[in-house]
Amino acid sequence: MKADTLFDLSGHVVAVTGAASGLGLAVSEVVAMNGAHVVMADIDRKALDVAAEELRAAGCKVEMMLTDVSAQGDVAAAFDEIVGRHGRLDCVFANAGVTGGPGFGNPEGEIETASLELWGHSLRVNLSGAFLTMRAAAKHMKRRRSGSIVVTSSVAALRASSLASYGYHAAKAGIAQAVRVAALELGPQRIRVVGIGPGLVDTPLTTFQQERPHVREAFLDNVPLGRVGTTRDIASAAVFVASDEASWISGDTLFVDGAALTKKFPELGRFRKK
Question: Which residue of 148, 252, 264, 274 pairs with 192 in a disulfide if CB–CB is 3.0 to 4.6 A?
Fold first, then answer.
């Protein structure tokens, strides 16, 4: 098989949540460039308008859908509309997420001071939002007995650090297990469920890395490949696990982190806001 046909998604209908920026936008672009019709879903209408227009100008087939992934009715209605309009749903990238506030490296993120409001918001968007997206997708994919669901997790699912919040760690760890359970249930329906676990990637959610150069340097010291990841690094891996070339991969989380998980990050616990 020729390389240019390996990940051909022509004719596929793909939905991406959190599509207005960062990883979601990169996934939308790569998937669309490989022939898919992409439904870009996000809660930020202004950013979504700009992102969709950029992709259309590049020749991509995309449409927008204003969606709050933490609202059950909103998610269900969005997927009903997608299938009603296009008659199919081949792949979903459950990517929408938030940081959930600072980690305990900042006094505001310590266990006794961490905001319960931010904890709850992180779980609603990152974990419940992923679950609601998986459920809405599964409803339609079952009818065709095919489809792939790709959920954004994180290295924070396996490794604790002082930088990410309690809520973020908890949500991403929960996603990894939800992926396993969903893959077990939906496998007989020929629906695959796979996680993608990014390491440190330059996105709007990691701007604190730019503001605190010593933290960024410490991360790089513990990434064997020696650089911060890009959204394209993650999007390329996501397209692979969503494609038919990954047809026997389900229930796992693919960590894309420059081999960072081979390191122990001994110094991260020392970073505190001064």
Answer: 148
Is residue 3 in a domain?
Answer: no
CA 166 from chain centre, in angstroms, equals: 18
| Residue of 7, 119, 131, 168 marked catalytic | 168
Query: Distance between CA atoms of 151 and 192, rounded to whole angstroms?
Result: 11
- Please give the pLDDT value at position 212: 66
The phi and psi torsions of 244 (rounded to 5 degrees) equal -65, -15
Please say if 168 is a catalytic residue: yes
Query: Predicted confidence band at 90 (pLDDT cuts at 50, 70, 90)?
Result: very high
Count of CA atoms in the C-beta half-sphere (13 A) of 102? 14
Residue 114: inside a domain: yes
Domain membership flag for residue 4: no
**Residue 180 in tokens:** 């396993």
Which of the four pLDDT bands, split at 50, 70 and 90, describes residue 269? very low
At 111-167, the pLDDT tens digits run 999 999 999 999 999 999 999 999 999 999 999 999 999 999 999 999 888 889 999
Measured in residues, the chain has a length of 274
Write out pLDDT tens, residues 29-69: 999 999 999 999 999 999 999 999 999 999 999 999 999 99
Structural domain includes residue 5: no
Q: What is the CATH number of the domain that holds 138?
A: 3.40.50.720
